[in-house]
Write a structure and sequence with these properties.
- The complex is a heterodimer of chains A (637) and B (246).
- Chain A is 36% helix and 15% strand.
- The radius of gyration of chain A is 24 Å and the shape is globular.
- In chain A, α10 packs antiparallel against α11 and α14 packs parallel to α16.
- Classes of the chains: A alpha/beta (637), B alpha+beta (246).
- Chains A and B meet through α3, α5, α6, α11 and α12 of A and α1, α2 and α3 of B.
Amino acid sequence: MFPDSKIPSGPLAEKWTKHQFDLKLVNPSNRRKYDIIVVGTGLGGAAAAASFAEMGYNVKAFSFHESPRRAHSIAAQGGINAAKNYPNDGDSVFRLFYDTIKGGDYRSREANVYRLAEVSNAIIDQCVAQGIPFAREYGGLLDNRSFGGAQVSRTFYARGQTGQQLLLGAYSSLVRQMHKGKVQFFPRHEMLEPVLIDGEAKGIITRNLVTGEISSHSANAVVLATGGYGNVFFLSTNAMASNGTAAWRAYKKGAYFANPSFTQIHPTCIPVASEHQSKLTLMSESLRNDGRVWVPKKVGDDRHPNDIPEDDRDYYLERLYPSFGNLVPRDVASRRAKEMCDEGRGVGPTKLAVYLDFEDAINRMGKDQVTAKYGNLFDMYQQITGEDPYKVPMRIYPAVHYTMGGIWVDYNLMTTVPGLYVLGEANFSDHGANRLGASALMQGLADGYFVIPYTIGDYLSKKLGEEVSTDHDAFKEATSNVNERLNKLISINGNRTVDRIHKELGLIMWDHVGMARDKGGLETAIEKIPTLREEFWSNVKISGKLDELNPELEKAGRLADFLELGELMARDGLNREESCGGHFRTEYQTEDNEALRDDENFTYVAAWEHKGDTSSPELHKEELEFENVELTTRSYK
Amino acid sequence: MKIQIKVWRQSNAKSEGKFSTYPLDGVSEDMSFFEMLDSLNDNLVMGGKDPIAFDHDCREGICGTCGIFINGRAHGPIRGVTTCQLHMRSFQNGETIVVEPWRAKAFPIIRDLIVDRQSFDRVMESGGYISINAGNAQDANVIPIAKENSDLAMDAAACIGCGACAATCKNSSAMLFVSAKVSQFALLPQGQPERSNRVKNMVDQMDEEGFGNCTNTGACEVECPKEISLVNIARMNREFLKASIM
């Protein structure tokens, strides 16, 4: 029997309100009797930690960064969606809900997505009240722009640095609570194990990344907000330290992992330039508001882009999708770019790129206006490539950007382990098989400010008076597991560095579990990854010691988990014999090369349960029920 | 390209540091500065030596984690970029590149090029916020804000907290960093209720952390990767004066 997803009954628009009333509360004077651990202090984690503290709970917050302000949420450029309908162009909570469900190719829960749309407006209010300088019109009111997968302007933005401003807003709320002593922050601490007592999450084991000290921390509940696992591909737009370890450790302690293969490949990234490349840089989707994507019509047209006349250019997105044009959702834009390159019409030295051209925008709005809107992105592009995008079209190519999959959570954001919650990108909940632009910031903050503060009380209320101590045997056992694993890693002393093995894993993932997948490729990945894992555990070379700052050791621990997670991603992709959103199985496509869903057999969340290191994971299916939208083939034509 | 890296090595906060020089061959000009260091570290690890520890994360110039002196310049030779955005095409074949950590009393060295910048967080804790609990906010469009002020607030809010300003300043002053936050909130209506206390508390904390005073040399502005303006320091001085005499 699948665990209860706790989706409230009743009409869609009333579910959350009704649920909030049905949830048990913790009396304000009792809240100070509870400790909550929050791991990760990006948008979701910082918002949750600050909100818990504001309510009166005691919070211990952990980050492997030196400061909460460093989290990778900071890198989100384009914006955050909300259903304010300030532009008066027909937006509504239902439309935001509908666009998000459709954008996710009908593989997410109606109730969760509706709640997300419902609280979206409160997020904007909260952020403005925190002093976040969103873009404004001359009249002093907030400005909006459009993002992929929507025909309304609902995206709020702060230049090309929206993620930075929202994170610094959450950070400001968090430091305010640190100052009051309600949040104790542990910088440069990495969580290596959750600790379960009688099957419930009651603490974590961490490693102090400066001293190497392993320590135990107890609480009445544990919240993970540890981000996505896109770095399993080695090259991605994620920050270098972003990893799947906390989520994976939770999985191995009994939390189900849902839809692990659902990966978002972002269409507008700067192409790979050399074999030394360490990461990929995203160019915001907002550029597709004004930039036009094209490739030469002829295969092997090596002329300089400025010498290729209009008639010899193929603006393929505008041609294939007249109504959405360059603003089709990310999965569609990425797949089409790959197709163009596969046809031999790719551009640039590697031929793995397409043009994103601003010539028309500059002619229409003037260079100054383009600079005002996108100046920092243009500068970044020029810095990295050495080319001036005001004069020569940008070259872009898809890159791994976000993972829709993640730890399975119920409507309360609780995992299959009682007392263990997961927020933001680390959970699977709201984006189905494809996330729309400007929705990640929305989900992180929705989870942190407006969902978990309500839902966690329902669990905690039943634990009044519960004493949790790190003296419990469960902490000792978890500590010894952590120590054993670290000792094993450092003693291998083989012949290959962590990065070299990680790059090999990345290639396997990109070739077989990337933008286009098929049965044979996925089976190859399932065969190759365990071999590489063996190679890692027998031949990795880690310098330095355990009791000091040791970046190689940190990377090795994360890679060890990626080497297991990658295999689960391939298994999940193999199981899902359909195409949906970012999961494109070449065997399942329409005549127009669009994703072909199989609603009869695959309208479910695939939730995987760990069954020990020597057995295969067990698949559980959470059937998705759609009462308010009709499942149609997504069309952006 | 073939280069030499002359880099500060220090195994922890208590030990003494020194420069070590490493040759590196096969550097391509498309490599980022950190990809060059990755490549050097790969060689070091394979040779059984400790790699050079450096702070970095997003590698797209926004998280503020990275920051080192390169040939005596914070974040290297190019204006308006962070270390992670610097590419090897900015250096010459055969060059010896000198790499050092931030040098400031309030940023003690942790290892090699990594320093401890928690002093910045403590300054923020002392007042770098608007006191608003989740759930309290009114509709976002209730208070119009002149676009000019909003844009100026955004200019200040663009600070990434990397510490280049304080590390560059001959007095190790953190005035540019602190004034960016003070300015952001002083320019917005939401920041008004706590305006006086904020500037006083943040300046007090800044002093307590051991940051020096500002003598208006303007080096911070020159080296700031986000080109935060010195005007913010002037604004903070005015805010501080006003708060102190009122």
